[in-house]
Amino acid sequence: MAHLRWRICIFVFVLILDSFFAYRMRRERELRSGHFTSKLPKCKLYEDTFGTWKSVREVTKSAMSLREFEQAHFFGVDGLGNGAGHALEFDKIWVPNNCSYHRFTNETINKCLLYDLNVRSMNGNLSQEAKTKPFEIVFMGDSAMRGIVCGISRILLGDEIRGPLGNVICGFYRINPLSTSALGHPYTWYVNQGSKTALDLTFTYIKTFQIAHFDWNLEWEVETEKPRILVLNTGAWDYDDIAREMNARFVNATDECLWANQTVISERRANAWVNSTIVHELADIGARHGVRLIYRNNHFNNRFGPTCADQRLEALMQGTHWEVWDNKRISANVWKSQTWDGFHFDRHKSMCFHACVICVFDS
Fold this sequence. Notes:
Blueprint: H1 19-33, E1 51-55, H2 56-59, H3 63-73, E2 92-96, H4 106-121, H5 128-132, E3 135-141, H6 143-157, E4 186-191, E5 199-205, H7 214-225, E6 229-232, H8 240-248, H9 260-268, H10 272-289, E7 292-296, H11 306-317, E8 322-325, H12 328-331
Parallel strand pairs: 3-5, 3-6, 6-7, 7-8
Antiparallel strand pairs: 1-2, 4-5
């Protein structure tokens, strides 16, 4: 069994594939069959970020206990992927409170993409280009966000545990993944190119909202490219100088702002320019073009406090077209023991890109 020290499930929202069609597909099949595939109701959007870590040893102590556990907490898509899957190969498994979720596989991702394609092909209000356009998800952030993309890549290329893993974003054998040398430049991995169920993943490495013309990059992605989903995150580089100072003093971060200079950065991340440009103007553009905008807040780490980094920014996003995907709860009690650098959930000395992808459809 792989040790959870070198790999923890970042609760990855990544592929929230147009929630309404997924719900309709599941509901129609359930009504026809006369029964549900899980004892608990299916998690609503982000409801699966409330839960606890359970010992895999405990839930697998007998075939009966494992079967009951999987029937209660997991559901399938069209009869596929209705169990815990590769999560059982680790020490602990995330279990949401009072709802069930789906662990995506290559097969179920493609089934959902095909369903979405069929829905679009029958929509007479869409242009031919819109009917056949690949499902595109744009990720903008630092190496923590890159790790999420690479976690998805493992599933899409073969196996969640062993990969393979190789593309323009995550690198190839002896070729490094995208990093600060590619700052601000979007790179797209064309998954299943030439297939009906084409999926495009675009990643842009960014350090902070404050880099020159970052708002232009955001606006261009949403206004011109019009992806289905844009996922944004920053934080680590904003606090980098302070984190190095803390490290020199052997001081670990807490959830809140420890020092006055941390508060200054927190306020800068939610200043008037961010509020008007990144939050509200982009929200209006996204709503106009039907682009789903998601801010992935920061997980617990020893460099900076996630509440310090995000609380003011999240407050500005309330009531706008932005959604906030919470990473704090799933990381709060376990992050210190899971990663060698106490920060990246996707990085290990011997396994540089490893993340499980858990996707939940909104009902």
